Amino acid sequence: MNSRPVSKLSATADNHRDRESLNDLISLVYDSVVDRSRWAGACARVAAYVGGVGIGYFEREHDTARVRIWLMVGIAPPPPDALYRQIYRALEGHFLGEIEQPVATSDLMPFDQLAETEFYRIWAEPQGLVDFVSAVLDRSAAGVAIFGVFRHEQHGLADDDARRRMRLIAPHLRRAMLIVRKTAEAATLADTLDGLSAGLCLVDAGGCIVHVNAAAQAILDAGDVLRSVEGRLAARDAQADRTLREVFAAAGQGDEALGIKGIAVPLTGEEGERYVAHALPLTSGARQCAGFTAAAALFIRKTAPAVSARPEVLGAAFKLTPTELRVLLAIVGLGSVPEVAAALGVADTTVRTHVGRLFEKTGARRQADLVKLVTGYATPLAD
Predict the structure, then answer these.
(1) In this structure, CATH architecture of domain 8-182
(2) Does domain 189-302 bear CATH number 3.30.450.20?
(3) What is the tens place of the pLDDT at every residue in 345-359?
C-alpha cells in the first residue's frame, strides 16, 4: 500500500514551524549569556531540537589529554574511575572534528562494536543511550572543546536531520559558550561592562556607538585598529570594516541573521599589532529587556601569549587554506611530524610540505615559532 503523500501546504507549514523553533532557540541561547540561570533550560531545548535527551560540553587538554566536563544536562555523569576513562577515550574522535561540523559516535564505530564495550553496558545502555552527535566549538593551543547531544534509543542513531540541526545551532552555541566562559560572573552583561579587561562597544545596526567601556575607549583613543568616525565605529583595515558593518547590520535583523558572521573578526594595526573581535546580538529576548538599545556588543582584545587561539582568525590573517590550518593546529597540539601525519591520516612528506608553506606564509622558521604564533592569538573575552 502506498503511503499518503504530504501536501505542499503541509510541508510549508512544517518548515515554517521548524524555522520559528530554531529562531526561538537561538534567542534563548543568547539570552543565557546575560542570564546564566537559563543555561539548563537552553541546553534541554537544544537536545530536543537536535533529537536527543541530554547534552554534554567537554574540553580535552592537549598537554595532559585530560577530559573535563564543563556542562552535562539530562544525562547521569560517568563515575570517576576506570569506566570514566573508557568513556572519554571513546570521545577521542569527536575532538578531531572540524569546527561546527557534526560528528556522531556512529560515524566513528559501528553500533555493534560500541555495544560490546564495558562502558556502554554499564553506563550508556541503562540510560537508553545509543549515539552522541557533537561539534567542535573551540580549538586552541591549550585544548579542544566540544558540545554534543546524546541520542536515546527512541531517537535512534544520528541521521541527516540531526546533523543538519546541529550544523544550524552550532555557530550560535559557539559564540554564546565563548562569552559565557570568558566573562566574569554577573547577573547581566551590563554589570560586567566597565569591569572587563577586554574592550567592549555597544553599537546600533548602523555601527553608531551607543556605549564603550574604559578598555574600548583606550583602543578608540589610540586609533590604531578602531576609531570613531562621526560617532560610527570604524576599523582601520577596509576589509575588517566591511565585515563589521555586515555584522552590525545582521545583528539588527535578529539573532538568526547574525549566523556565523562576526564569530571572530581579525583586526590589524598600522604597526602590525593584531586584535580580534567577537559580536553578541542584543536585539531579542532578555538582552533587549535588560535595557540595551544597541544591536550588538562587540568585544575587542589585543592578541597575547598563553591564551586561547581563534583558528579562523589565524586562517584569515595569514591566508591559510583549510588543510594548512589543520596542520598548524595539529603541530601545536601534537608536536612531531609523524604524530601529525598519523592523526590526519596522511604521509609524513605531505605534512612536511604543508609545514614548509606555513613557514612561508607566517614568516616562522621553526615549529616552535608556529606554536608561539598560535598562542599569540587570544580570545577577545579572556579576563
Answers:
(1) 2-Layer Sandwich (3.30)
(2) yes
(3) 677 888 889 888 988
Compute CA distances 377 → 48, 170, 298, whole Å: 35, 22, 17
Phi, psi of 256 (to 5 degrees): -65, -35
Domain locations along the chain: 8-182, 189-302, 311-375
What letter represents residue 362's amino acid?
T
Q: pLDDT tens digits, residue range 290-301?
A: 555 678 888 887
Residue 177's identity, in one-letter code, is M
The CATH number of 311-375 is 1.10.10.10
Residue listed under C-alpha cell 616562522 = 364
Which one, of 60, 42, 53, 68, lies nearest residue 130 by Cα? Answer: 53
3-state helix, strand, coil in the chain (%, to 5): 50, 20, 30
pLDDT at 187 over 50: no
- Look at residues 80, 71, 73 and name the one whose alpha carbon lies nearest to residue 54: 73
Rounded to an integer, what distance in angstroms lies between the CA atom of residue 376 and that of residue 358?
Answer: 16
- pTM value > 0.70: no
The three-point CA angle 227-232-233 to 5° equals 45
What's the residue count for the chain?
383
User: N- to C-terminal Cα distance for the chain?
Assistant: 64
